[in-house]
Amino acid sequence: MVTESDTESIQVEIIPNRYLTPATTQRLLNEIYGSGGITRIMVHGPNLPRSVPYGPGRGTPIEENRDLLIEVGGQAFELSVKVGRIRLELESEEYLAGLKAACERALPFSFQIKRGKFFHTRPTITDYAKFGKVEDKRILGLIDPKAKRNRLAILSEVQVTVDDKEEC
What is the CATH number of domain 4-119? Predict the structure, then answer.
């Protein structure tokens, strides 16, 4: 007999004991994406500035924060944060073991996996201000309210409709 708790999605947070380099981030996200069962995923960490924000070198470009393109699931996108946590939602409990195995394969150091509630289930004011009326509940809570541009990458073969605009 299938109960609601068997088919209910779960939310987890992966907390590595170090910040991840772009290469490690790409390897980990591809392992996680390949294990299946992902509904939505968010990388979290401090922003990587493109130039020195203050001090005597203000405005000088930071060379090490360039070319941070990573490819996940066949789609390339720019990494704009130093990855410290990865939050994701799995379709059901059965994918948790595969997630842990993927983390063990990709991370050469220790990490923690915590269960909890990390994503919104209802639209917030920020979601409404950025998108208008949201039809696809998977994008709720995935927007930085202070971001000057949209930093949302959708890795799906299914079309997602946001405020009467179609994105792949």
Answer: 3.30.70.260
State the Cα–Cα distance between residues 74 and 77, nearest whole angstrom: 10
Distances (CA, A) of 116 to 13, 65, 84, 127, 154: 8, 32, 17, 21, 23
pLDDT in tens, 85-134: 999 989 888 999 999 999 999 999 999 999 998 887 777 777 777 777 77
Please give the C-alpha separations between residue 107 and each of 33, 40, 62, 69, in angstroms, as whole numbers: 15, 21, 27, 19
Q: Is the dihedral of CA 96, 100, 101, 107 positive or negative?
A: positive
User: Which residue, among 78, 77, 88, has the nearest Cα to 33 in the 3D structure?
Assistant: 88
The tokens for 83 are 């990855």
Domain boundaries, the chain: 4-119, 121-168
Side-chain-side CA neighbours of 167 within 13 Å: the count stands at 14
| Entry pTM | 0.74
Beta bridge partners of 90: 10, 38
